[in-house]
Amino acid sequence: MQKQTILTGIRPTGHLHLGHYFGACQNWIKLQEKFDTYIEIADVQALTDNFNNPEKVRNSVKALAIDLLSIGIDPNKATLFIQSMIPEIAELTVFYSNLVTIARLERNPTVKTEIKQKKELFGESGESITYGFLGYPVSQAADITAFKGKLVPVGEDQLPLLEQCREIVHKFNNIYGKTLIEPEAYLSNSSRIKGLDGNEKMGKSLGNAIFLADDEATIKKKIMGAVTDPEKIKIDDPANPDICMVYYYHKLIGNDNIKTVCSECKAGKRGCVACKKELITKMIEFLKPISEKRKYYEKHPEIVDQILKDGTNKARQVASQTIKEVKQSMKINYFN
Ligand code: TRP
Fold it and tell me: Which domains are delineated in the chain?
């Protein structure tokens, strides 16, 4: 039986952190066993926000590929490819842009939040809102439909983009005849991962992330600064682990000593410094296999390049079949 296709994407804007890993990527490692898996390094989408910083996007593409390979994305099971090298995605984006109103894009809750954040940063003038930025949900619909992905493994924040994609597909199929597949979100059960500062979200721009590529000294420094129960002053004060980020990460990385950590903390038998030191050791241990694989790929950039080239070639074949069908439906297939 043919495996179902799933497609997901990630913006190359830096290294992966624990939030990406536990929030999404860990799930992809499982899914690649069961599904025909496509993972897009969404450089075109990253440029919608970073068009004036092309170096950042360029340098992140391979760094991200290495991160993904290091955590266990297997190029024999998953197709890893670069968005800008699939021109069919750009073509589809143009065709789909007729099917979306500007008002609808502005109402997209994800876009709406991002516009609000931009206005806070750049002022009310709205000059920071480019056509490309406002239209990135259209381009994301092109990403998804180019590969006839039925399931799209994403976090909850991406649901409005999926809904927008379904609307585009629906409209396309209504006008031009049934051509595209309506995708569904495949939500991972892992929720958002909290930051070192206790923020509900770990994020690069929030400065509260542990990156998979952090070295030991950086991990130590970050964990020593993590937020703990503010009521605990003295070493033998009892504390509440549920509001402590150190306890949270002990749990997250699966410390098998977790029951002791919890009971000692509650009983005032565990000082925060000792607890942090234990987490540092466990975190380094947890990240070790990933960092060893990273060292291997960093030493062999030609292997990473080949994986990306092969993946992109394969992806392009699929996308070019889709564009053929789309052009036929739209009656712009002139000479065949
Ligand atoms: N918008 C997604 C994010 O910011 C990345 C992405 C690009 C994506 N293309 C995609 C996700 C296609 C799912 C499907 O995380």
Answer: 5-194+301-329 (3.40.50.620), 216-294 (1.10.240.10)
